[in-house]
Amino acid sequence: MTRFQAPEPQSFDKVLSSMCTEPAPVARRAAEEFLATNPGDPGTFKSVAGLEQETISLLGDVVGLDDPQGYVTAGGTEANIQAVRAARNLADVSAPNIVAPESAHFSLQKAAELLDVELRRVETGADHRADPEAMAAVADAETVLIFCVAGSTEYGRVDPIPALAELADSVGARCHVDAAFGGFLLPFTDAEWHFGHAPIDSMTIDPHKVGRAAIPAGGFLARDDSVLDALAVETPYLESATQASLGGTRSGAGVASAHAALQVLWPEGYRAAFERNMDLATWVTGELESRGYPVSQPTLPLVTWVPESELFEALRAAGWKIARTRTGAIRLVIMPHVTKSMLESFLADVDQRRS
Amino acid sequence: MTRFQAPEPQSFDKVLSSMCTEPAPVARRAAEEFLATNPGDPGTFKSVAGLEQETISLLGDVVGLDDPQGYVTAGGTEANIQAVRAARNLADVSAPNIVAPESAHFSLQKAAELLDVELRRVETGADHRADPEAMAAVADAETVLIFCVAGSTEYGRVDPIPALAELADSVGARCHVDAAFGGFLLPFTDAEWHFGHAPIDSMTIDPHKVGRAAIPAGGFLARDDSVLDALAVETPYLESATQASLGGTRSGAGVASAHAALQVLWPEGYRAAFERNMDLATWVTGELESRGYPVSQPTLPLVTWVPESELFEALRAAGWKIARTRTGAIRLVIMPHVTKSMLESFLADVDQRRS
């Protein structure tokens, strides 16, 4: 066979702002083994379809839900779209809207545009968390979903979920929690964020981020099967009656690797990673503060700090894969591939390039 | 590390109705190498983002388009959704509808429901192809998209694309071709199906089916960048301004394997596979006819035939992974993993179990 040389895939040794990371070795092996399978066709690919059911059950343990409904999505965006879609389809209103903190992931704007639902984004309160009173002020009888974040993209913050679930109930809306980033971290904190803590309806949780599965492995979970029913379409030529997923053919690699990672890492492996990553986040926070930078105290392993205006570009030019918040702060996401020596090297570059 | 035993992934040796297949070896290697990369974040994962651009350019060669716009989707469903979304967003009508033959893939029903667009499905004409006159009869000023199929799921048929593109033009609608199945087969036929044959606007073409890439690797292609612009949302924290894809984090494995497969197999490898698979399809058609079964003459390597009413279940019980059309005919999709000895074994089971 013809030999084909692809460019090297980029290593993770300068990646500091991504929620993607190297999959766990067991997850990588499972992905490679199931690369050619399709859980979207369970009549043909039975074993991976079984793994998907077990994965959802394992995710139920993570999120405090006894009889979880759901499936493995292509990622957090699909799960967020499905939450909005289910809420829209289940409501009986003519001009549906959703109410969300401005800290919600941009996939929510995608979902709103796609589904033709009005998105009411509300300023966050102190500490970049959702403000239930401000959200209540814009919610109304046409609100179909209160959207909450458990581990925000920019600051790693957890919204006051019980208060937001209460708001949802008071306006007759559904309540969704986006725990794409926080889902594999928050079980080791005292945060109130999951199905066991508040009467939320659905959740996004991404094995392919902190869960260390291979891409694509997101998760959409629901408390009750009416949510999945609201998403189902008929599948005429598959030997299964309906399909609730947004995609048709789906990645067996993602499903099998999520299953393998959860089997091996939940809960102790994830706990150890959380503790390690929080220690590093706390340490780098101290280092940045000692240099005089304003830093938001990390509640999850995500450190957001305000650099001099030209420092960001200088660090990008030095090869650091970093990204900014909308206000120009730098986000350091302390994922498993981020080491202390990597952060030391980053800080050395900060020292060399700061004005 | 803890050892984890997953159940064996299913082999393909009894899979006869799936458009999925074993990826080409070069595509599998590329997928494994790029498993941890994310083309959805091109500022961080630069090399796989470069491969995606090259993949789109290679796909342009396949579909007769000089300067193709587009991206690698999670699959055909995402591409079909995006086609409808772009058409809806670009049109200025209050109650948009799309007109499609009843042979259109069920993902179109998903798209219509999701996007709140009316779907007008029209009976196909002779030989299961779209009927331009019947479609013209239901198209109107609110029609935003004429949807065509190049390689239908049930019969492998190619719609009269030039006539349908003309219809689209006459009502001021966009024209989309779903070549998810046919895209890597039709270049070796005299069918008129692509951007070079008719003024179509967009196309679905799936490397992870006949293109022998690893799942997930679909393709959405457009003639002009206004289509992509109509899908773009802002990406506040990525070092790229907008994102047109439906997903956020996407599979680098899918992109890299599509790139590798196209580099190595286009055009001669795909031509050889097409000829081999058509020969097998023709052979099995003769075998089925000699047993007295009604068979639709294959125009692509997909053989649809009408069994006795209980034979389907008997063959499923014997382990054959087969599926039916809406009218109960059995579809045999002759993919690269389907061999003559496998079909001989299948026919032996037919002979043993027929009434």
| Rg calculated over all Cα atoms of chain A | 21 Å
What's the end-to-end separation of chain A, in Å? Answer: 55 Å
Largest interface: A-B, 93 and 93 residues
Counting DSSP H or I runs of 4 or more residues, the number of helices of chain A is 11
Which residue ranges of chain A are poorly predicted, with pLDDT under 50 across at least 5 consecutive positions? none
Number of strands of chain A: 13
Oligomer designation = homodimer
* Protein structure class of chain A: alpha/beta
The largest sheet of chain A is: 7 strands, mixed
Question: What does the model show?
Answer:
The structure is a homodimer of 355-residue chains. The first copy, chain A, has 355 residues and is of the alpha/beta class. Chain A has two domains: 25-265, Type I PLP-dependent aspartate aminotransferase-like (Major domain) (Aspartate Aminotransferase, domain 2); 268-353, Aspartate Aminotransferase, domain 1, CATH 3.90.1150. Chain A has helices at 25-33, 46-62, 76-90, 107-115, 132-138, 161-171, 225-229, 252-265, 268-290, 311-317, 340-353; strands spanning 69-73, 97-101, 118-122, 143-149, 174-178, 202-204, 218-222, 233-234, 242-243, 295-296, 302-305, 323-324, 330-333. In chain A, strands 1-7-6-5-4-2-3 form a seven-stranded mixed sheet, with helices on both faces. A four-stranded antiparallel sheet of chain A has the order 10-11-13-12, with helices on one face. In chain A, strand 12 and strand 13 form a beta hairpin. The radius of gyration of chain A is 21 Å and the shape is globular. The N and C termini of chain A lie far apart (55 Å). The model of chain A has no long low-confidence stretch (mean pLDDT 95).
